[in-house]
Design goal:
This protein is α+β, with helices and mostly antiparallel strands. The chain has 4 helices and 18 strands. Strand 12 and strand 13 form a beta hairpin.
């Protein structure tokens, strides 16, 4: 069970990262007249983050995305993240670009935009979906759950429909809706028959999937690092 990470080559198209201009083909960052060059793998790491703005990427996922052609360990990733932070002038304690999520990985928190394309900045959400190895920060708006490659929360199991359910976040409220799945969506023991509000501690079951997913909601406008600590206080359900 995984969140939706598309294992594709990082795009070569230039893009903006906050106030910076990024040119992947030239391995350059530009801030006004200041130009910083990156090693190719460090640029690949940055573009991998840019493909998934706001999403927590595990070390395994990043190694798969950036070093799929060679076998390396966590140390290579740690060094590359450090080099990238140095190039960005980022502070690990008060990050503007890359945030460390303890025991989970990293995420890009700066807005990303491409020429002619709206900003990819992800609106913050206080809602997590966790359990059975899945830890996913839900985005404001609609979050599709299912086997589909287009799902924001992708669950690779034949027991789950391609477009199984939808969780919609609107500010401080969340609603789950079944999308006509074969075996239904349940909140606790109750089958979802229409848009159903969900709250902190609620447990979701999808079709015949044995694993139970838990909804975790922070009690305030937490940063994602603070949210990651709050996840530890709610035990994930087990099938």
């Amino acid at each position: 069970m995984t969140s939706n990470h598309n294992r594709t080559e990082p795009p070569a198209a230039p893009f903006r990262l906050g106030r910076l201009q990024v040119d992947p083909a030239a391995c350059e960052l530009r801030d006004g007249d200041t130009v910083v060059r990156l090693r190719p793998k460090v640029m690949d790491l940055l573009t991998a983050f840019a493909c998934n703005p706001g999403e927590v990427l595990s070390k395994h996922c990043l190694l798969d995305l950036v070093w799929s052609d060679v076998t390396v360990g966590d140390a290579s990733l740690t060094v590359a993240v450090g080099e990238l932070r140095d190039a960005l002038g980022d502070d690990i304690q008060s990050p503007v670009y890359i945030e460390t999520i303890p025991r989970r990985g990293y995420r890009l928190i700066a807005p990303v935009s491409y020429p002619g394309v709206p900003s990819c900045h992800v609106a913050p959400s206080r809602f997590w979906l966790t359990g059975a190895g899945l830890e996913f920060v839900l985005q404001q708006g609609e979050n599709l759950v299912g086997r589909s490659a287009d799902a924001q929360v992708r669950i690779d199991s034949p027991k789950v429909s391609r477009n199984h359910a939808k969780i919609t976040i609107d500010g401080d409220t969340a609603v789950v809706e079944d999308l006509g799945s074969k075996n239904g969506t349940f909140v606790g023991d109750t089958r979802v028959a229409g848009p159903t509000p969900i709250k902190h501690g609620d447990q979701l079951r999808l079709g015949r999937l044995a694993a139970i997913l838990s909804i975790v909601v922070s009690s305030h406008e937490s940063t994602i690092t603070e949210l990651s600590r709050e996840v530890e206080t709610v035990p994930a359900g087990e099938g």
